[in-house]
């Protein structure tokens, strides 16, 4: 599968809230950095189990979270891709959220 297809698959898995499918894209020694958290840079989760727990918490806290307006950028020579999307969702306590994070593969 090429990089752009992989990025599309990742985005589709996130929009399906399919943790099992999402986690197939992460290595055992993965790191996920999220912009929100108790540190100035947000939160950092290391290892597949911690990443899975963090994403489960995201889906619980934003039960209708959606990653839309996706744009994928690929540097084939560097075998690297970046996705940009608009995150929208209603928090479990009914406050609408919109953010513009980027996923780096």
UniProtKB/TrEMBL annotation:
This is Nuclear transport factor 2 family protein. The lineage of its organism: Bacteria, Pseudomonadati, Pseudomonadota, Alphaproteobacteria, Hyphomicrobiales. It comes from the Bacteria. Residues 10-90 form the SnoaL-like domain. Gene3D superfamilies: 3.10.450.50. It holds the Pfam family SnoaL_2. Signal peptide: none annotated.
């Amino acid at each position: 599968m090429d990089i752009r297809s992989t990025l599309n698959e990742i985005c589709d898995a996130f929009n399906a809230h399919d943790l099992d499918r999402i986690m197939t894209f992460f290595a055992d020694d993965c790191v996920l950095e999220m912009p929100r958290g108790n540190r100035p840079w947000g939160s950092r989760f290391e290892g597949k189990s911690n990443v899975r727990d963090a994403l489960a918490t995201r889906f619980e806290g934003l039960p209708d979270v959606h990653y839309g307006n996706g744009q994928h950028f690929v540097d084939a020579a560097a075998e690297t891709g970046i996705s940009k999307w608009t995150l929208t969702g209603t928090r479990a306590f009914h406050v609408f959220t919109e953010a513009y994070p980027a996923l780096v593969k």
